[in-house]
Amino acid sequence: MVELPFVKDGFLKKQSAEKSREPQEALKNSGAEAKSEKLRAQVLGRIVQRYQDYIEERETKTISELKALIQPYNQAVTKAKQQIAESFHPYIYSENFDAASDAAIALVARLETVQLPLNFWLSFEDMEEIGAGDEVGKAVFLCSLLRSLDSADAKVCICRSKKPYVIFSSASASYLCDIQKGTKSALIGSLGDGKIGDEQIVYMFSDSAYEDFTEAE
To answer: What's the predicted TM-score (pTM) here?
Structure first.
């Protein structure tokens, strides 16, 4: 009987040992990569801290620049609008806006919420590519999308706590959208007192309007 080399006991033991090392090597490499990413994040964090004042100075927006953040015709916003409108044949504001606004809120809510260590404006394209954005950035994205869906009065509200909301109305009701929760609820009363619940509004804006609530204090 011919003894084949690949069935010899020594060969099998060698193969078994090599296979047992594979997951260990993979685990070791994974741990090294995780450590490298953690160190990289720490270094980038130090860079951000060092230049935080400089970055935030350049990211500070004037009233006109804040209004310009709402971009109904931005490429990423238009793409999102088309994605929503495809479920209506065709999309008609007077008939479909309530359902479309729910779809817009759900679409933006799918973006992960990240807390940035400084004031920094991500573009809609950045948020789409990364799959995340901070609360204010997501509010600006949602407001732009609602305006793209023909909402005439969608606005971003920024409260003293820096919490953002989006308000808008349809033929049936006025709504308040909580960006963090990704929900909308009926807006009770007006914002004439400058408050949303216990939250004091600081300013409210869209691409066509800006209101400063600190002037009434």
So the answer is: 0.77
